[in-house]
């Protein structure tokens, strides 16, 4: 079993680029980390880390060894946490950023269910639609919709969100029913996040630019404006489920509805996040694993 000694320390040094930073991360002395890595290198018969006064880098052998060692350490951490889930009472504050109809009607209630299972846990749910900086704003993870541009974040797909176009009966009686997405250029459209709407036309993605009398980045505002007859709305299907059931809105352009985009859980390096954050993410992923936009 002594062949495993030094692996945790080596992985910590490789990830933090230094012995002192690794010692802080592991809660031990720098000399202990250095000694354990040196013993590991001696057993392996090769140098894993190139040391200098300013920086520590991986050698070619070290880089290859790190890829295998990292998976070993992560697997051990996950095994430990799996046991701890049954023994540790979660505490502290879970800070989440989310906005939009999915967050309000589905993610929020799911997090309420999660926090109800952990009496010592507090949740701070920020429903502001602004794009937050997770580390600077102290956010543990965020729910984001659409294309993701920040390559520094880890993203896990939460749900797929196919689209639906609708309008009120009053609007369609006054302005007629569009038969093709390009007809929308002659209609009043209720714009949410963008005025370029993507449809499926002859098996290809086609974009049409729309305009209208009402614009809002809030899904409920778009929904209510559509009910009031202010124009055509085009959002994920679950936004309109209740209104369609109550015959307040009518689906249109169905053959052309696009696949839409996905909603994601995004966060920074998962390896050292608090257990409450990891379990909350796992809970949401499991909660929405079989979620169907069309049945909501």
UniProtKB/TrEMBL annotation:
Q: Which Pfam families match?
A: HTH_1 (PF00126), LysR_substrate (PF03466)
The keyword Transcription regulation belongs to this UniProt entry's keyword annotation: yes
Keyword Mitochondrion in the entry? The reply is: no
Against InterPro entries, the record matches this protein to:
LysR-type_TF_proteobact-type, LysR_HTH_N, LysR_subst-bd, WH-like_DNA-bd_sf, WH_DNA-bd_sf
**Limits of the HTH lysR-type domain:** 10-59
SUPFAM superfamilies in UniProt: Periplasmic binding protein-like II, Winged helix' DNA-binding domain
Keywords, A to Z? DNA-binding, Transcription, Transcription regulation
Q: Which family is this protein grouped under?
A: Belongs to the LysR transcriptional regulatory family.
Protein name (Swiss-Prot/TrEMBL): LysR family transcriptional regulator
């Amino acid at each position: 079993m002594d062949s495993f000694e030094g692996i945790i320390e080596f992985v910590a040094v490789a990830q933090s680029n230094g012995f002192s930073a690794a010692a802080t991360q592991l809660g031990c002395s720098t000399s202990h980390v250095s000694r354990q890595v040196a013993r590991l290198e001696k057993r392996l018969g090769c140098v894993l880390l190139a040391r200098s006064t300013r920086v520590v880098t991986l050698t070619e052998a070290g880089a290859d060894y790190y890829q295998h060692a990292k998976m070993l350490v992560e697997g051990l951490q996950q095994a430990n946490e799996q046991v701890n889930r049954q023994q540790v009472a979660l505490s502290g504050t879970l800070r989440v950023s989310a906005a939009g109809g999915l967050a309000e009607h589905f993610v929020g209630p799911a997090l309420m269910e999660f926090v109800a299972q952990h009496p010592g846990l507090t949740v701070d749910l920020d429903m502001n639609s602004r794009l937050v900086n997770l580390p600077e704003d102290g956010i543990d993870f965020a729910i984001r919709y659409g294309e993701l541009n920040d390559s520094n974040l880890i993203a896990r797909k939460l749900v797929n969100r196919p689209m639906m176009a609708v309008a009120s009966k009053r609007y369609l009686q006054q302005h007629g029913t569009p038969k093709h997405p390009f007809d929308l250029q002659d209609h009043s459209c209720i714009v949410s996040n963008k005025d370029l709407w993507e449809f499926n036309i002859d098996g290809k993605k086609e974009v049409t630019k729309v305009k209208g009398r009402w614009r809002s980045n809030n899904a409920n505002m778009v929904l209510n404006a559509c009910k009031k007859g202010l124009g055509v709305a085009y959002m994920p299907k679950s936004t309109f489920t209740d209104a369609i059931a109550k015959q307040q809105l009518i689906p249109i352009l169905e053959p052309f509805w696009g696949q839409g985009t996905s909603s994601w859980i995004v966060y920074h390096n998962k390896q050292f996040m608090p257990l409450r954050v990891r379990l909350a993410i796992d809970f949401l992923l499991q909660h929405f694993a079989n979620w169907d936009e069309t049945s909501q």
